[in-house]
Write a structure and sequence with these properties.
Rossmann fold, Tyrosyl-Transfer RNA Synthetase, 56% helix, 6% strand, binds tryptophan
Length: 367
């Protein structure tokens, strides 16, 4: 059996460099190098609404933005199926059935959800946690199983979601019939890519923290952001010994710099080890390492910007891509939904045995 790969993002803002190294780059690699039956990328608007219910415009506004980000990094609608979660009605249907396979305490134990509840400040006195928010991992299990995805490339914060989906698959298959496929999470191999810190040194690049480099940032903005980047507060004069640990410029260089970049932009150093050694010894200024990082990131972002521009000028095409993707996604998900309902014995009209069983019950009574 060939792989079915599914992943997705909430459309709540433009994607940033953290998304790029943490997932987008890997998706492009999979798309171009791996063997699969389907590669599906879902715009998770339904899930985004679970904590943006008061701000539906924000979600609506970001659907095409996120698609533009996908296309600009090289995901290709000829190879990847892009679809919108809310347009596939089998997903909430499956969710409704799966809800009976998960207990309330189990839902509330999910560490990612717990964390998000804290971050969002839901549990204030007047505003409780929306049920849809607390249970979104169940809906995410529907996203994954509807397509029989066996591989789900995600960030490590999503591992509890995949775990929940696995439990649901097991429970469903045990309770009814072996219909659902057990999914496997795949997280970035390079540990440093798993969570790119913000330019302010915060552990997470996040829109709400205002510490992002966006894929759409122009060269000037990129330069300004890198110049603001947190380095080493003890490295005041050029000749002071510098620290690498917690120095965000080096964290980024760890993720992005290759030996080819050194050859091209900083040939006086062989590799990152040499550059780090010099910085630690003293005598290497922040301006130089920042310029190097700028050159590397500009080389990364420029082609993304150019591609985005092409698609931005063809908005009709974007909607068509999503429409086609939704048609395909509906086909696949409806087929699973049918199997699920058959297994549960609730396909009353298509199930020849249903009426016969009931008739038999009555004919027995008469005798
Ligand atoms: N929860 C994911 C996120 O916040 C988005 C998502 C929704 C997803 N459904 C999914 C990811 C299914 C992978 C598979 O980024």
């Amino acid at each position: 059996m060939k792989n079915i790969i599914l992943t997705g993002d909430r459309p709540t803002g433009r994607l940033h460099l953290g998304h790029y190294v943490g997932s987008l780059k890997e998706r492009v690699r999979i798309q171009n190098e791996e063997d699969y039956a389907y590669l599906l990328v879902m715009i998770a608007d339904t899930q985004a609404l679970t904590d943006n219910y008061g701000n539906p415009m924000k979600v609506r506004d970001n659907v095409l933005e996120v698609l533009l980000d996908y296309l600009s990094v090289g995901l290709d609608p000829q190879k990847t199926i892009f679809f919108i979660q809310s347009q596939v009605s089998a997903l909430p249907e499956l969710t409704a059935y799966y809800m009976n396979l998960v207990s309330l305490p189990r839902v509330l134990r999910n560490p990612t959800v717990k964390n998000e509840i804290k971050e969002r400040g839901f549990d204030s006195e007047k505003e409780g946690i929306p049920v849809g928010f607390a249970t979104y991992p169940i809906s995410q299990a529907a996203d994954i199983t509807a397509f029989k995805a066996n591989i789900v490339p995600v960030g490590d914060d999503q591992l509890p979601m995949i775990e929940q989906a696995r439990e649901i698959v097991k429970a469903f298959n045990n309770t009814y019939k072996e219909v659902l496929v057990m999914p496997e999470a795949v997280i970035p191999q390079n540990e440093k890519s798993r969570r790119l810190p913000g330019i302010d040194g915060n552990a997470k690049m996040s829109k709400s923290l205002g510490n992002c480099i966006y894929l759409t940032d122009d060269a000037k903005t990129l330069k300004e952001k890198i110049n603001k980047m947190y380095t080493d507060p003890l490295h005041i004069n050029i000749n002071d010994p510098g620290h690498i640990e917690g120095n965000i410029v080096f964290t980024y260089l760890d993720v992005f710099a290759t030996n080819a970049h050194f050859k091209k932009y900083l040939p006086e150093y062989k590799d990152l080890e040499e550059l780090k050694a010099h910085y630690q010894k003293g005598g290497l200024g922040d301006a130089k390492i920042k310029k190097f990082l700028y050159d590397i990131l500009e080389e990364t972002l420029e082609p993304i910007r150019i591609k985005r521009k092409e698609y931005e000028e063809n908005m009709d095409k974007l909607l068509e891509i999503l429409k086609d993707g939704c048609t395909k996604a509906n086909e696949l998900a409806n087929s699973t939904l049918k199997e699920v309902k058959d297994a549960m014995g609730i396909s009353y009209f298509a199930d020849k045995n249903f009426l016969d069983e009931q008739k038999l019950k009555y004919s027995k009574k008469e005798n």
